[in-house]
## 1
Amino acid sequence: MGDEMLVPLDLYLASGIHIGTTQKTRDMERYIFRIRQDGLYILDINDIQIGMTLEGIVRNVVDFGVFIDIGLKNDALCHISEISNTYIKNPLEVVEVGNIVSVKVIGIDLDRKRISLSMKR
């Protein structure tokens, strides 16, 4: 291996395929802890209702939208058409992994345990 220095990759992974910083990860952990302390943490899909406004953390950005942690086991999806009131070609134009965003619940699929969100104002 020569003079190469090995760095643990998990220190730089924010989520999914995106690479972030350790500072962003610490900020996300503090935010999650604060939500749990305030009693605002959603524990079950049955706690969610259409029309609710929630805060969440962007966990992954893909071509078709953004996956947001709102406190459930599975992240909720905000489709690219629900991210902005104006046309965007890529969700990275508006958000990045680690952003704290305000979202509105627009759909709940209890059978598949999926939540649809909107970031539009």
Note: The first strand starts at residue 13 and ends at 15.
## 2
Amino acid sequence: MLSIAKRTAAGAGLLLIMPVTVWVSGWSWQPGQDTGWLKAMYWITETVTQPWGIITHVILCGWFFWCLRFRLKAAVMLFTILAGAILIGQGVKSWVKERVQEPRPFVIWLEKTHHIPVDEFYTLKRKDRSDLVKEQLTTQQAIPHFLRQHWQKETGFAFPSGHTMFAASWALLAVGLLWPRRRTVTIAILLVWATGVMGSRLLLGMHWPRDLVVATLISWALVTLATWLVQRFCGPLTPPPEERQEIAEREQNR
């Protein structure tokens, strides 16, 4: 358990570099960023937003199955644990959001520029919030159409970031489960992707840096437990003898 915690903590540390740096720098979100850059960030965030998030989840589950090569019974248990880690994380996120009730940055901006009190905004039902955002931004040409639509869809509270918890959980699962198999390319790609998702949440006006930090820490705790459960019930994470030669050849070819 300790070795798993150390491994996933190292991954969490890498993920925390960006949001902690932004937090300490005092950076604050403002609309009017370069549209092309925002569009790229939007598509990164969409890899986690429903329904695309389900597709991402299925693809990653399939890849983890292939990398770990457990037998059928262990593979079913692996799927259950992976799905459980993600779903429990989203449940914790929703529970915390309803109790902290932190407004999103774009909602604070609406209060300052369109005189929509934050308290009144969040007393509305979700559909009414969406309609209000649409109405207020109809003539706001400085806000790209895709971002207006995203705001209309995401009118909930900010703290912590559910998108970050999804992406960070998968990145840390890669660190926890795939590092013993030396799947370093997969780990690197998922860490970069998770950092990109986190950055997109800041640049799209959806979250504050602290939302990302806390979401990453929650993900780390859940993933550490999930990785231990996989090792306990699915089998050792270290490769069997027949895979070691393959790993050695893969490492040699890099």
Note: Residues 177 and 227 are 6 Å apart (CA to CA).
